[in-house]
């Protein structure tokens, strides 16, 4: 019985650890190599001319992520030219939600004409490194001589419905600040989103 | 004929109960303060969130099992306010939810996520157990067994 309690406690602490771990603003990002919907492997190092990156954890099925699909495409269009391309990563496990499969990712990318990579993260390795907890969840990186540094973590804007007249475009504002050689005025925001569908371990 | 009346009556009573009230965090705080010895189980969900919908029956069960105890289960929807009539109320009627259902009446996600719990990233489902000054927050989904274990643990 005692062992059972200990195991239970370990599980609980492991769980909360998994949620608080991950990159904070100012941290250096470890490069990754993930498979894109076109089967090619994508790494940050591939982007020789980039000044930074907009890494977005997003997925096929989450209604909030879906509501942001067009805004993500627009971000890529606008900011690739300025040196900040979008890299989308699907953090969800297809074993838990079948519609999150690689094939369904390919279908979505084709349907929506994604102009940015949409990467598979098997076993959530990169998702856990970043500490992403929901979709959509954005990490803006700035390239420095030492590596890629996290400069912003959070939401795309404060308007999931896309109908507010007083929209605050957090990601755009942050990149504009970085482009101007400044630190982003707002470095972290929160938003309601879909939980990540973690692989069942038991 | 009498049976018909009874059915009608119960339908009317049910739909009258199937109300979803708007709830601001100030109103929630007031409710918690007035609750004194009551233990509150506050589940944050949305009609569009599949793991939330999947775990609602466990919260309904918790509500049903504690009807005679000072325990209140509050199901707080984070659906958009514009979806109240079109999505939330029909959902509550269809699922015959018996616990109290609210729609969070707060505009600013930056402010309310932080206020509900500073550790919360905003992912749902999320659940808060509160009894007086004791509180425990969960950013996770529960199976029936897991919710039961967490509940027993909180009440130890």
From TrEMBL, chain A:
All copies of domain Thioredoxin, residue ranges: 23-180
Gene3D superfamilies recorded: Glutaredoxin
GO molecular function: antioxidant activity; oxidoreductase activity
Signal peptide: 1-18
The keyword Signal is assigned to this record: yes
Entry-linked InterPro entries: AhpC/TSA, PRX-like1, Thioredoxin-like_sf, Thioredoxin_domain
Pfam families linked: AhpC-TSA (PF00578)
SUPFAM superfamilies: Thioredoxin-like
Keywords in alphabetical order: Signal
UniProt protein name: AhpC/TSA family protein
Species name: Pedobacter rhizosphaerae
TrEMBL record, chain B:
PROSITE patterns: THIOREDOXIN_2
Gene3D superfamilies: Glutaredoxin (3.40.30.10)
UniProtKB keywords: Signal
InterPro entries in UniProt: AhpC/TSA, Thioredoxin-like_sf, Thioredoxin_domain, Thioredoxin_ResA/DsbE_sf
CDD domains: TlpA_like_family (cd02966)
Signal peptide range: 1-18
SUPFAM superfamilies: Thioredoxin-like
Gene Ontology MF: a single term: oxidoreductase activity
All residue ranges annotated as the Thioredoxin domain in the record: 1-156
Name of the protein described by the UniProt record: AhpC/TSA family protein
Domain of life: Bacteria
């Amino acid at each position: 019985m005692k062992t059972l309690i200990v195991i239970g406690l370990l599980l609980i602490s492991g769980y909360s650890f998994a949620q608080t771990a991950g990159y904070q603003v100012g941290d250096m990002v470890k490069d990754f190599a993930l498979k894109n919907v076109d089967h090619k492997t994508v790494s940050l190092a591939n982007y020789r001319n980039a000044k930074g990156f907009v890494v977005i954890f997003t997925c096929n099925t989450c209604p909030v992520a879906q509501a942001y699909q067009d805004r993500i495409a627009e971000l890529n269009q606008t900011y690739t030219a300025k040196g900040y391309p979008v890299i989308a990563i699907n953090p969800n496990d297809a074993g838990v939600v079948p519609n999150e499969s690689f094939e369904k990712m390919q279908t979505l990318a084709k349907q929506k004409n994604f102009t940015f990579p949409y990467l598979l993260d098997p076993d959530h390795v990169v998702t856990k490194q970043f500490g992403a907890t929901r979709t959509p969840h954005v990490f803006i990186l700035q390239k420095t001589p030492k590596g890629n540094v996290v400069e912003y973590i959070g939401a795309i804007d404060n308007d999931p419905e896309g109908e507010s007249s007083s929209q605050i475009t957090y990601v755009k504002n942050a990149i504009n600040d970085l482009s101007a050689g400044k630190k982003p005025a707002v470095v972290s925001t929160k938003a309601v989103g879909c939980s990540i569908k973690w692989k069942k371990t038991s | 004929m009498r049976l018909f009346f009874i059915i009608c009556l119960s339908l009317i009573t049910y739909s009258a109960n199937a109300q979803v009230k708007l709830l601001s965090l100030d109103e929630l705080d007031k409710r918690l303060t007035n609750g004194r010895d009551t233990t509150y189980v506050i589940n944050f969900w949305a009609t569009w969130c599949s793991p939330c919908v999947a775990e609602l029956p466990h919260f309904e069960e918790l509500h049903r099992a504690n009807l005679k105890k000072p325990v209140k289960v509050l199901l707080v929807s984070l659906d958009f306010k514009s979806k109240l009539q079109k999505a939330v109320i029909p959902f509550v009627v269809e699922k015959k939810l018996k616990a109290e259902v609210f729609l969070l009446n707060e505009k600013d996600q930056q402010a309310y996520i932080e206020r509900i719990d500073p550790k919360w990233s905003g992912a749902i489902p999320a659940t808060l157990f509160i009894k007086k000054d004791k509180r425990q927050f969960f950013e996770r989904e529960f199976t029936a067994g897991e919710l039961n274990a967490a509940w027993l643990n909180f009440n130890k």
